[in-house]
Specification:
alpha+beta, 2 domains, Hypothetical Oxidoreductase Yiak, Chain: A, domain 1, globular, 7-stranded mixed sheet, Ribosomal Protein S8, Chain: A, domain 1
Length: 331
């Protein structure tokens, strides 16, 4: 079903998002960080975009305090987010990891206590890679995903991202470990769309095509047992390891783990970017499965969408989404 759309310039989009975030109570510094992440995701067709405004998933917690560094060593830092916005805490974590990696070659930062979504963590991983570092991010989220063989929500959607410097744009992987994203289901529900029956269960543990019922049930892990194992790894890295919520049982205590590496740590940094580019080009020039197609490099499709939006200085927003954001912005 085709939805009516609204055409906005990037400046108009930025003004709309800023006004909505201001209405939700974000400070100027918070608005800058959150706006950048949301627009980055929206222009790439990422589900972590402007729908978060409509869902109030970026609204500040009235009980938030100052972020606190509870542990710091030359390599490892731990941050208590103290109910601050997830994207603001993640920005601090990545900056701390890059600082440590710039000094010692490796920086590891754990966080807990983020009151809201960290958004598209690929934005932050790419930020580190643009400064010359290999970056890996594991994100903990509220429970929504059933382990393989179960119908109960125990894991979060538990995204992971890694970004690697190359001779051109950073190689970027940004993915959830669930078969569908939480905000993707919210969007499908808003648009009145159905979902594939192999993505989620309803509250009774039955497969469902209704995204609303899936939101009250459990999403499957992607890739069966292997995806479930990866989700478990991230659950451990963002829960027990960093003091974050375990199986989502601690409200507002989602954890995250950021790792930044200096490619020169092993003595091959001078050639790292070019050698990585050579590997990517080998993939790109390999034989495709189907004549006329092309082997896929992670992140290239979304980057092409972003560059097209920049070049054309416009974005097409679903009218329902636009109207909902505008309503928030005007109140």
């Amino acid at each position: 079903m085709n939805q009516p759309t609204i055409k906005l310039s990037l400046a108009e989009l930025s003004d709309l998002v800023t006004a909505a975030l201001s209405s939700l109570g974000l400070t100027a510094d918070e608005r800058e960080i959150v706006s950048n992440v949301l627009i980055w995701a929206e222009l790439r067709g990422n589900s972590q975009g402007l729908g978060k405004i409509v869902a109030r998933a970026v609204a500040p917690d009235p009980n938030a305090g100052e972020m606190v560094v509870t542990h710091r060593s030359p390599v490892v830092t731990h941050i208590d987010g103290n109910l601050n916005l997830g994207m603001v805490v993640m920005r601090r974590a990545v900056d701390e990891a890059v600082r440590s990696a710039g000094t010692t070659g490796i920086g590891i930062v754990g966080t807990r206590g983020t009151a809201t979504s960290t958004g598209a963590i690929g934005y932050f991983a790419e930020r580190a890679a643009e400064q010359g570092f290999v970056c890996m991010i594991f994100g903990g989220t509220p429970k929504a995903v059933a382990p393989h063989g179960s119908v109960d929500a125990i894991f979060g959607t538990n995204p992971l991202s890694f970004a690697v410097p190359t001779g051109d744009n950073p190689l970027l992987v940004d993915m959830g470990t669930s078969a569908a994203t939480w905000f993707g289901l919210l969007e499908a529900e808003r648009l009145g769309e159905s979902i594939s029956p192999d993505l989620a269960f309803d509250a009774q543990g039955e497969a469902t095509t209704d995204p609303g019922k899936a939101l009250h049930g459990a999403i499957r892990a992607f890739g069966g047992a292997k995806g479930s194992a990866l989700a478990l790894l991230i659950e451990i890295m963002t829960g027990p390891l960093v003091g974050g919520a375990i199986a989502g049982d601690q409200a507002h205590q989602s954890g995250n783990l950021v790792i930044a590496l200096d490619p020169d740590l092993f003595g091959f940094g001078a050639d790292f970017a070019e050698r990585t580019s050579a590997l990517i080009n080998r993939i790109r020039s390999s034989r495709p499965v189907t004549l006329g197609s092309q082997p896929q490099i992670p992140g290239e499709r979304s980057r092409a969408l972003f560059h097209a939006a920049e070049q054309q200085d416009c974005v097409m927003l679903d009218k329902g989404l636009f109207d909902a954001i505008r309503e928030i912005a005007e109140h």
